[in-house]
């Protein structure tokens, strides 16, 4: 079997989970052809990402003429399907935040993908994120007759389902993957209950062979925490600085390393300076995968104060590294973490609760932190082995594609 993976911007530093999934499928003997609409405009320090970029077919880089030529060739071969796909693009654009013009671009991108699917003898498509990449996969499916599926991560897709035509995509897809039970529940809200069996849970995962043992927790004090992620509002780093200031006022000495970058970097730097935390907080910028692992290994714990999440890979990476985690009680996080056993879960947006958890972490004996880390490692290895999860996905790919007449299809409805 050959799968065409349809992606928007790929690879990117925060998308290692997609690479792991594709490579796990390849280890199972499934060929994966990578299609991305565009390349990442920043640097790719990780060698694995550089290898992925070299193996990816970048659609928009081919230029307008190549896309129009693909449309012409596909139209000659399947004129009826082209018109059906155009109608579907117009339907998806109604009420969409992308608008009609962008959907016409997606239509052209889908024509190029359709042509390449035929040339490469690709059997089916899978997209990640329910946004424009899935739109392209849906339109290419209409043009080619090949089934498509997609993985929804959240939280962005759940914030604006109508604006990205998510109910329509759920209806058209052969199946849809959610990365947590919480995510599946949110997708079930968008469609008639008869579609629910097509919404399946397949977790993101870690590669156990890269974590055959965990580095010992640092024996030095003060406690060091690491936070990893884009500097944006929903990740809550500003609230974390507020909590750190409260912990400092209590006379508790804690260090924090912030790994990442983004539009909130300047406000973060100002908040750190205003709170007098310059000697306690370090900003590293983006690190490659090995650098992220070193940052986790050098810390006593991970802290994730997010307001919204899917099921964060950094939590899995910290837990498999035998580090306890402080995280907010949002989305799929409580499905992985266990309060009091693998770390601390706090209400999102509550700086005082976050400060309490940090204080408890900083004053906990080393053997308690090691016990939490060991419990967390065992839980991740049991629930998030990427080869096991890729096996679930491969089984879905190998099932007979769904066939259903229009008359039999239940109506899509927003709740």
From TrEMBL:
Residues 103-209 form the Glycosyltransferase subfamily 4-like N-terminal domain. The keyword rRNA-binding does not apply. Pfam families: Glyco_trans_1_4 (PF13692), Glyco_transf_4 (PF13439). It is an enzyme of class 2 (transferase). Keywords: Glycosyltransferase, Transferase. This is Glycosyltransferase. Its EC number is 2.4.-.-. GO terms for molecular function: glycosyltransferase activity. InterPro entries: Glyco_trans_4-like_N, Glycosyltransferase_grp1. It comes from the Bacteria.
């Amino acid at each position: 079997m050959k799968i065409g993976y349809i992606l928007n911007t790929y690879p990117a530093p925060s998308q290692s989970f997609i690479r792991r999934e594709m490579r796990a499928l390849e280890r199972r003997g499934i060929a994966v052809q990578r299609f991305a609409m565009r390349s990442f405009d920043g640097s790719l320090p990780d060698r694995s990402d550089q290898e992925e970029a070299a193996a990816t077919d970048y659609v928009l880089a081919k230029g307008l003429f190549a896309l129009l030529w693909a449309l012409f060739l596909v139209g000659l071969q399947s004129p009826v399907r082209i018109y059906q796909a155009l109608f579907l693009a117009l339907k998806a654009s109604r009420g969409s935040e992308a608008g009609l013009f962008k959907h016409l671009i997606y239509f052209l991108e889908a024509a190029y993908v359709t042509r390449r699917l035929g040339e490469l003898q690709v059997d089916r498509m899978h997209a990640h994120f329910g946004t424009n990449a899935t739109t392209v996969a849906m339109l290419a499916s209409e043009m080619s007759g090949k089934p498509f599926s997609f993985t929804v991560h959240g939280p962005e897709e759940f914030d604006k389902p109508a604006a990205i035509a998510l109910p329509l995509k759920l209806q058209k897809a052969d199946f849809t993957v959610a990365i947590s039970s919480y995510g599946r529940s949110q997708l079930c809200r968008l469609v008639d209950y008869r579609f629910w069996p097509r919404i399946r849970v397949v977790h993101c995962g870690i590669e156990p062979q890269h974590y055959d043992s965990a580095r010992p927790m640092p024996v030095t004090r003060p406690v060091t925490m690491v936070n990893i992620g884009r500097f944006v509002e929903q990740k809550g780093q500003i609230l974390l600085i507020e909590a750190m200031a409260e912990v400092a006022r209590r006379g508790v000495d804690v260090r924090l390393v912030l790994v990442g970058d983004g539009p909130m970097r300047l406000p973060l730097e100002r908040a750190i300076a205003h709170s007098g935390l310059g000697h306690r907080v370090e900003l590293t910028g983006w690190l490659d995968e090995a650098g992220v692992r070193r940052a986790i290994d050098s810390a006593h714990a991970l802290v994730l104060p997010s307001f919204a999440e899917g099921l964060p890979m950094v939590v899995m990476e910290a837990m498999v590294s035998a580090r306890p985690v402080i995280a907010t009680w949002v989305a799929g996080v409580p499905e992985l973490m266990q309060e009091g056993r693998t770390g601390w879960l706090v209400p999102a947006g509550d700086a005082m609760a976050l400060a309490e958890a940090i204080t408890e972490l900083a004053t906990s004996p080393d053997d308690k932190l090691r016990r939490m880390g060991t419990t967390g490692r065992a839980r991740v290895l049991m629930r998030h082995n990427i080869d096991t999860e890729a096996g679930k996905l491969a089984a879905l790919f190998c099932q007979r594609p769904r066939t259903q007449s229009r008359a039999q299809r239940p109506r899509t409805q927003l709740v």
